[in-house]
């Protein structure tokens, strides 16, 4: 590829563009920004995870990838690290201390520690990655140690916002790096790639500190235990609750594997400041009076196997809801999870807890900037070109509208989908070819082996189940020997369906009688058609039908 | 049952209490309020509808049910009419003109016109239903002809709000019946049963008229066609759009079977005021310039088979998205539908339309009152007892809090679940026995035949599919004859899984060799266990495993 061209390729994401992974190429040199996962939509049956389709990188044998740079430690930006490192061995990672520590755990779990090295940098550091000069700058979000990147190219600076909001009173006191943003603007920003998550939300997103007031009320009023559920990665919330625990003289217990691990990691590297004497093991909480205890827990999305979900159904090993508990759901509900979150809240009420959640009290704020913050960032940077990223098409379009309001010409704003290659040269910027850039299903240990066909079958099975008959026939006369064996699941409760089973048997008998002369394949086909028709007439359902005709 | 007691029993609803159906008994006499349906949650696989479990009524042979009274024509209050009428023949229905017309269609479709009679009343009419005196009163909501009921009992008046908000500038000009509410208060309200839907929302719900401004902007700015999607039953929105069509000189077409039917019905009885010359058939829209056309369509919930869903995927028979189209999604997204609605919006953008939706513009307002309206209604009625209804436990709890703020003693507020019997006598009100009061799945033509077992099987099939082997063995030696037949769906794409299939064959061979002496059932069990273990080791998935061993 020509050294006279920069190419930018957003990859992965479930409808969200450039959320999980972005490639920046300069000739045959490249860097990658983030390697995240998405969680499957409700209708992606049986899928555990979605990772970016990075086939393109495997096929570009001529490309030298000099490093993977991470903006922050959330799963949608780091969760696919093991898959990418495994496929592209030897490429060094670059991350801030917290992000690096979280990546380390992932690589260790996947036994890939030897497959790469992690270079730790501090927000504000300038990195030399192959021929790329990359200036990191601190941005505020809902996890500490969050950065954006300014990448110097022959045609100007490309600024990638990472996930951000402008929080001037962040929990850890570390403000956005306005100075660096101003400096970029002074040097001239060629392209701005900006987080579009909240582009439909007017106004400003409140500071993380705003939830302090809500929690102060809760800690003041709660007579017994307080249980706070949030994301395992939401370390600033965990720090906040630890601070309240200290102020109100409560011990803090952590429930949930991923949160326990994250707290351990973050305390080790000094990101979380919780003294040993504040913490108590979950196994020991029964020795502490309820009003002297606060428990941080996973499960804020209503996941049935996380702590809050298990509390709701009474299935946690060592924890039970007690009358008098105040349970706080301190997290944004990810679209698609509304039903399970609501169900969890209802069940916790049923078990006697008082449940507090947004909108009953402002116990959570978004980690992403709203429209006014987006306008501020665009205004601060004053870019020539604008590429809205991190959002579905609807959000990118809304972000684009903001850019136009601020005077960026419509032709200089690019709303694209994953896999679209954006080309920049001395003449300007344009949309080039399209490469595979979607997502790949991870199901169990299989990556990409569950495709459309399997998914369609799962949909049919989920809707109406299946029915199979195995029947023995005399190979000479073609006549049925004995009763057919009927196996069915997900269709109808067979024990209560004697009439229907009689109908199946009758159909088997009739069809096989009428097709005595036909070959086995033909008989099978006819049998399945007849069964399907009969069952639809009787039940208005369309189970999958299978048959095996054994000739004896 | 004693004449000295009133019993109230909320039935049905998916977590929502008393939403779909409520029974009011006085001794052995009873009336029913509403017979609605719910739509299944995302994890209720294959279920078409949920109807109230009204087994209780079938079992109470001593009970005389004098009538079914309807509050309004929405599906969650009328949708189960055919099921209830079919089971409880001969009980007359009572409904306002629009609701009656919509019920008529349902009964006709189910060929049940002869099974009941519909008594049409006007909002404000007093009904004599058996020994019950029921005073209807008009309330505003998002459909015309909406009422609540005041039921006189020996112990005082029971007021049922129906679905309501206090809209003082409703589209049809018909305000809430404040006079009747005041009169009830003067006579003394024993019990208030109130809609809790928006109990978590502070403030007032805006009037339906508020969306006028948003639509005025849209009609003024749209250069080509306007397509407005809303609920088929949202007749006030349809009237609004028809009025705008007249003002801006556009023809109006209706797309979608249910909406077309509803418009026909509502125009016939004079509820919708749209002159013939305003309307145009969908088949004729191509003869009309795009800027002179507005189309009302179904599919505001992203349902793939409704009009908007088909437009998004390019699968509508007679309608296609054209660049320049302005598409308005003018409906609240029902919890659980967020993913499909968002996907639909993204796809419509992709096809070149400009899509407008809440929160981009206020093109929809809730039909349910917010906290201040709830406080107003409670204050207007000043009831002795309070039963929050129409909401999940979380909403009932929030409504209860409002009641307490207004001075109703906590012991006089009853938060219950469906099937709980509330008893009122001269001593007061209490929670009595519990009767079956949940919901029943409707799947195809089956009502209640899909239970937990079938649903669990569907979940497993949806997650990992199934694999079945059919193998022939020599009945004398027990040895395998030929290759086993392998059938699998939803598990893995078999054509790309040669190794796995070889593993299955090997396992079949090994197990059957080792179990030659065992009886068939035992061999089958062992085979299934071994296959399950082998497949989990290889894929980390757990498909259902079946086997048939034919002895020849």
Structure description:
The structure is a homodimer of 552-residue chains. Chain A is α/β, with parallel strands linked by helices and 552 residues long. Chain A folds into three domains: 277 residues, 4-Layer Sandwich (Metallo-beta-lactamase, Chain A); 150 residues, Rossmann fold, CATH 3.40.50; 100 residues, Ubiquitin-like (UB roll) (Roll), CATH 3.10.20. The first copy, chain A, contains 15 helices and 25 strands. An eight-stranded mixed sheet of chain A has the order 7-6-5-3-2-1-19-20. A six-stranded mixed sheet of chain A has the order 8-9-10-11-12-18. The interface between A and B is large, with 67 and 67 residues.
* E-strand count of chain A: 25
Q: Which chains have the largest interface?
A: A-B, 67 and 67 residues
Main CATH class of the largest domain in chain A: Alpha Beta
The order of strands across the largest sheet of chain A is 7-6-5-3-2-1-19-20
And the CATH topology of the largest domain in chain A? Metallo-beta-lactamase, Chain A
Rounded average pLDDT of chain A: 94
Q: So how many helices of chain A?
A: 15
CATH architecture group name of the largest domain in chain A:
4-Layer Sandwich
Low-confidence stretches of chain A: none
Described by its quaternary structure, the protein is homodimer
Please outline the major beta sheet of chain A. 8 strands, mixed
The Cα radius of gyration of chain A reads: 28 Å
**The CATH fourth-level homologous superfamily of the largest domain in chain A:** Ribonuclease Z/Hydroxyacylglutathione hydrolase-like
């Amino acid at each position: 590829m020509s050294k006279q061209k920069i190419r930018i390729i957003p990859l992965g994401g479930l409808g969200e563009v450039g959320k999980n992974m972005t490639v920046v190429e300069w000739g045959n040199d490249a860097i990658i920004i983030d390697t995240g996962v998405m969680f499957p939509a409700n209708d992606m049956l049986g899928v555990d995870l979605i990772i970016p389709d990075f086939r393109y990188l495997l096929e570009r044998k001529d490309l030298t990838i000099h490093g993977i740079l991470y903006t922050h430690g959330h799963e949608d930006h780091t969760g696919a690290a093991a898959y990418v490192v495994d496929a592209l061995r030897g490429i060094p990672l670059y991350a801030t201390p917290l992000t690096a520590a979280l990546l380390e755990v992932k690589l260790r779990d996947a036994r890939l520690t030897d497959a790469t090295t992690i270079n730790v940098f501090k927000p504000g550091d300038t990195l030399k990655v192959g021929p790329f000069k990359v200036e990191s700058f601190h941005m505020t979000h809902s996890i500490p140690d969050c950065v954006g990147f300014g990448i110097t190219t022959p045609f100007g600076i490309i600024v990638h916002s990472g996930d951000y909001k402008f929080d001037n009173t962040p929990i850890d006191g570390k403000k956005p790096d306005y100075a660096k943003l101003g400096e970029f603007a002074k040097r001239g920003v060629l392209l701005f790639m900006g987080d579009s998550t909240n582009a439909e939300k007017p106004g400003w997103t409140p500071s993380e500190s705003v939830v302090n007031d809500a929690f102060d009320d809760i800690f003041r009023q709660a007579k017994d235990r307080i249980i706070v559920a949030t994301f395992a990665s939401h370390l600033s919330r965990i720090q906040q609750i630890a601070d309240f625990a200290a102020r109100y003289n409560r011990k803090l217990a952590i429930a949930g594997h991923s949160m326990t691990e994250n707290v351990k990691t973050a305390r080790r590297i000094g990101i979380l400041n919780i003294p040993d004497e504040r913490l108590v093991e979950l196994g020991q909480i029964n020795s502490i009076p309820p009003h002297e205890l606060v428990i941080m827990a996973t499960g804020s999305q209503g996941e049935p196997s996380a702590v809050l979900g298990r509390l709701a159904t009474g299935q946690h090993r060592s924890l039970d809801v007690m009358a008098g508990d105040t349970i706080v759901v301190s997290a944004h509900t990810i679209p698609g999870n509304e039903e399970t979150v609501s169900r969890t809240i209802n069940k916790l009420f049923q078990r006697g807890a008082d449940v507090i959640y947004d909108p009953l009290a402002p116990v959570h704020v978004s980690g992403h900037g709203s429209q006014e913050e987006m306008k501020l960032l665009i205004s601060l940077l004053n870019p020539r070109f604008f590429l809205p990223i991190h959002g579905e098409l609807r959000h990118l379009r809304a972000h684009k509208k903001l850019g136009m309001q601020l005077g960026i010409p419509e032709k200089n704003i690019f709303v694209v989908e994953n896999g679209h290659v954006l080309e920049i040269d001395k003449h300007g910027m344009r949309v080039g070819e399209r490469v595979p850039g979607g997502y790949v299903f991870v199901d169990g240990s299989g990556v990409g082996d569950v495709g459309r066909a399997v998914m369609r079958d799962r949909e049919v099975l989920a809707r109406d189940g299946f029915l199979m008959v195995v029947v023995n026939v005399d190979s000479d006369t073609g006549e049925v020997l004995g009763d057919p064996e009927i196996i069915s699941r997900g269709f109808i409760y067979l024990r209560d369906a004697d009439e229907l089973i009689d109908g199946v048997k009758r159909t088997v008998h009739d069809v096989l009688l009428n097709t005595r002369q036909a070959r086995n394949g033909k008989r099978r086909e006819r049998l399945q058609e007849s069964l399907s028709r009969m069952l639809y007439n009787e039940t208005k359902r369309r189970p999958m039908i299978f048959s095996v005709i054994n000739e004896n």
